[in-house]
Backbone:
């Protein structure tokens, strides 16, 4: 039996051979240095922060080099699949502006000429490549049952040998073609394994774009390439897909570093040029003085939905991820406050080779800065979109008082150093509830009066202000002049400085007086600009808040 006949016998019904696919998927005609890379999730339907971080870097590197970023779905492990997994992955990423040039679009559509981009639809291709290895005597059928593999492992543990299927432990390697055929004809189930040419005592070097040179022993394990269901393992699918899809850079989580010797060996036995690898370290969390990987199970902030619920703008998350990826990004952004991430040049070499600490506080800070630079109308629209999903009472108020609400968001906004009241959209109501009569039900003790506390004095200040000094029409300067007049009338200094120079001559200063007007209106001792707030209220609502007859 020739090797070719043997390969046909082991993997029958394979339509095309390897050469066919080599020709079908041409080399990409891209400019020098263009990065072709991919996001390759299993369709478990859940994009978490770590995955978003990887996808963000992948897209950015492809974009900035005029390369290609594509989506491939790795669904050869049928057990892990969930329904609509693909759609939720695409949707979650699109929400963050992470779009693909090529690959899977949804459960049924894809774009690009290097497909199918869903692994379970590529069975014939993998098998064509496996047949080539069988023909080269670099792969063989293996017959061990789960039980037998377990026995090998237990023996290795007992004698403290390396665990795995290699060397003399790889029993099936030693069957002749005829013996193997005989077994199969008798109904023995089998898988296909690589006949590893590696030597564990020799070293290979991985030149990782992020981690630098890593020396590791060669792979000598006869790893599985085709499973009993005819589908490939991750290792083999990676070789076939990234070769045929003409991937230049495999950017992936660093849990794969230890598999790199297998991958480099696979490229080597086929005589293909291996892609460049860039292994990303995980996002870490500090807990009880120790660092650990951010975990899907333990950390709610690992889920991207967490940020959506809080109403943290996606842009802020992306800014954060850029900061984590390249620490010089922050300085760049300070120098270019209106700059876009797309304008920043990211560098593999500046990505931390060890885990970066995940910093929720920093995200909140970026979010606050981002919101402070939006137009009031945008704060309104985004705040409303958030509220419609999570707080219908507030959404109704925003809709009922649209212009008024925009007016609130506009206070101290369009300036060089805008006010930063809102950390995220779920924070809006907490900050401005007192501006809506529907939400305003304070108790006496809620009023944060400061130096002036006497109810009688407060009442007189309020009524004097409304009768004598308040005017709906005046500009801010005139308004402030009136506040000073009011202060003077009650024995308070017109200026803080004046008071400080002669504290004995005054009961206090202008700040004490404006505090009374502020607190009586809002309950709060700290609010945005009081002049703007009063403008928004207007006379009637102020009289009402101050408990005065209209
Ligand atoms: N499907 C693999 C995973 O989800 C992808 C790793 C890779 O990018 O090669 O971990």
Residues:
């Amino acid at each position: 039996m020739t090797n070719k006949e043997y390969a046909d016998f082991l993997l029958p019904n394979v339509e095309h051979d390897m050469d066919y696919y080599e020709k079908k998927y041409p080399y990409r005609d891209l400019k020098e240095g263009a990065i072709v890379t991919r996001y390759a999730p299993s369709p478990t339907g859940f994009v978490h922060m770590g995955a978003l971080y990887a996808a963000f870097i992948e897209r950015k590197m492809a974009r900035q080099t005029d390369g290609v970023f594509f989506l491939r779905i790795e669904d050869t492990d049928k057990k892990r699949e969930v329904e609509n997994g693909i759609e939720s992955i695409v949707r979650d990423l699109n929400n963050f502006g992470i779009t693909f040039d090529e690959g899977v679009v949804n459960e049924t559509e894809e774009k690009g000429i290097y497909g199918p981009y869903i692994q379970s639809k590529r069975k014939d291709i993998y098998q064509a490549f496996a047949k080539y290895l069988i023909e080269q005597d670099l792969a063989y059928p293996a017959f061990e049952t789960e039980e037998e593999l377990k026995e090998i492992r237990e023996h290795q543990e007992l004698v403290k040998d390396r665990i795995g299927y290699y060397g003399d432990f790889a029993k099936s390697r030693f069957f002749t073609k005829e013996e193997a055929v005989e077994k199969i004809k008798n109904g023995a189930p089998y898988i296909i394994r690589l006949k590893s040419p590696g030597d564990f005592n020799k070293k290979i070097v991985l030149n990782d774009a992020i981690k630098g040179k890593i020396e590791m022993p060669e792979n000598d394990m006869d790893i599985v390439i085709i499973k009993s269901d005819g589908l490939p393992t991750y290792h083999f699918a990676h070789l076939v897909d990234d070769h045929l899809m003409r991937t230049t850079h495999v950017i992936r989580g660093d849990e794969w570093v230890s598999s790199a010797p297998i991958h480099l060996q696979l490229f080597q036995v086929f005589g293909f040029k291996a892609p460049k690898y860039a292994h990303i370290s995980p996002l870490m969390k500090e807990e009880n003085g120790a660092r650990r990987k951010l975990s899907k199970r333990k950390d709610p902030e690992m889920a991207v939905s967490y940020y959506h619920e809080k109403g943290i703008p996606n842009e802020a998350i992306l800014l954060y991820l850029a900061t984590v990826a390249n620490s010089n990004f922050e300085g760049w952004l300070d120098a270019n406050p209106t700059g876009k991430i797309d304008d920043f040049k990211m560098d593999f070499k500046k990505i931390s080779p060890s885990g970066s600490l995940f910093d929720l506080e920093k995200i909140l800070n970026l979010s606050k800065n981002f919101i402070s630079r939006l137009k009031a109308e945008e704060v309104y629209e985004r705040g409303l979109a958030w509220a419609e999903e999570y707080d219908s009472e507030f959404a109704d108020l925003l809709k009922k008082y649209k212009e008024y609400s925009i007016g609130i968001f506009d206070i101290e906004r369009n300036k060089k150093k805008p006010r930063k009241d809102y950390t995220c959209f779920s924070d809006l109501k907490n900050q401005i509830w007192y501006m809506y009569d529907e939400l305003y039900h304070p108790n006496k003790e809620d009023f944060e009066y400061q130096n002036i506390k006497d109810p009688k004095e407060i009442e007189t200040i309020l009524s004097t202000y409304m009768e004598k000094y308040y005017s709906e029409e005046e500009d801010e300067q005139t308004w402030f002049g009136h506040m000073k007049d009011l202060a003077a009338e009650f024995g308070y200094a017109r200026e803080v400085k004046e008071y400080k120079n002669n504290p004995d001559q005054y009961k206090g200063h202008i700040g004490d007086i404006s505090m009374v007007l502020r607190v009586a209106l809002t309950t709060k001792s700290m609010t945005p600009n009081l002049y703007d707030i009063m403008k928004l209220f207007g006379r009637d609502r102020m009289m009402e808040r101050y408990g005065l007859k209209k």
